[in-house]
Amino acid sequence: MFVPALFISILLRAFSAQAKVVTSFDECKGFFYKDTEPGGMAQNAKKICQMLEFDSYSYATLYSVHHRIPLYSAYVFDPDCSSTAGRAENWHVEPQISQPESQTDHMIYERDSDENMIKRYQAVSSDYTNSGYDRGLLNPNSFPCEESHNATFTLTNVAPMDAGFDRHNWKNWESTLWSFLQRKLDTDGGSAVVYIVSGTVPGDHVQIPLRGTSEDPERVTVPSHFWTAVCYKHHLNDTKSFSFGYVGENQLGGGIRLMTVSELDDQLRELLKTPQAVRIFVDDCFDDSKKLKEIQGVFDQLINLPANQGDQSGTDEQSMSRVLKKATRSREYVTNSYLTVGGSRCKQDHLCGRHGSGYNWCNTVDGKWDKCCDRNGIFTDCYLTVSREYCDLQHPCGYYGYSYLWCRTKAAPYWDYCCKNCE
């Protein structure tokens, strides 16, 4: 009986989502450029080699137990993977973080954990409930291949991300990054490896759950910024190697700016308020401001749209629904009580309001929720966006074939959501 039991134990372990809290990233150093982890980050944070299958690591994470969020996740881009995002049916937690003496060296389903024990040093799903913040993944679930996809759905890989910023601004940049890297690797015949590090800047003022919404409030730090750094290392020709980064403010309409890796290092040092130099890639990975201008041009072309034109997802019925929505709303001025920043209508029994949070939001007719267009009681006009940017005079607010209101602007990312249809 001993041998079969041992075999079953090993087999179950091999097919469970796993991770390992380590003292050194040596076991998963392959996710870092030149096998070297970023420098200047919190030295007392927990190092996690994240994995899905036994002895097969998926990415690496530096996790702050003080803030209960990851400081960064590092991974390698795989051009053979789909860019289609999925949803988590189950979230995982890491027992070794909250209970170092635990002999369990793999992730466990949150539903199977002792929540009181887990909450000691890490976030749980209930911290995010009705907070207005999404579980923002640092290693996005749309990047890994199928075998590593589920490994991203761990609460050690997420931090509170403003729902509007997550679903609109950051999502747009992530999809643009995927398209950019996919095209570049195709051009180079796959003769390169892409190292990516995505991270947070812990904020000073906001924690979730918000006071008044939970019996155990203000446990999880809300980042003030999210950032990503990319190192593209060509195998044969270093003149084709390059790097870049971008950082965005974690709020609705928060701007995201492209920059060199060395500039990102300096900005993170300032934002993190650390006396230590921050170095994401050991030698800045072929940092070059001239190449950045070329990258900026390509990014502008890819991101200067309200949606990915290459995305043909959705049924004919859904497409017809979007057309009908546009037709029924055409030239309609909608009150702030009913319309969200994404162009959805609020349920009649749940109009725009604070609802216990620090901003206006509502439950929408499509079974989701979104922030409302109400900007401190000011009703936006045909040339003003929800982020207070001005529309191009030749392109006032309207639907323009999409299911939400938007217009072109002169500032990156060169478009924004509106709250009026003036098409």
Automatic annotation (TrEMBL):
Residues 1-19 form the signal peptide. Residues 56-270 form the ENPP1-3/EXOG-like endonuclease/phosphodiesterase domain. The keyword Transmembrane helix does not apply. InterPro entries: DNA/RNA_non-sp_Endonuclease_sf (IPR044929), Endo_G_ENPP1-like_dom (IPR001604), ENDOD1 (IPR039015), ENPP1-3/EXOG-like_nuc-like (IPR020821), His-Me_finger_sf (IPR044925). Gene3D superfamilies: Extracellular Endonuclease, subunit A (3.40.570.10). The keyword Signal applies. It comes from the Eukaryota. Residues 55-274 form the DNA/RNA non-specific endonuclease/pyrophosphatase/phosphodiesterase domain. Keywords: Signal. PANTHER family: ENDONUCLEASE DOMAIN-CONTAINING 1 PROTEIN ENDOD1, ENDONUCLEASE DOMAIN-CONTAINING 1 PROTEIN-LIKE-RELATED. This is Endonuclease domain-containing 1 protein. It comes from Cirrhinus molitorella.
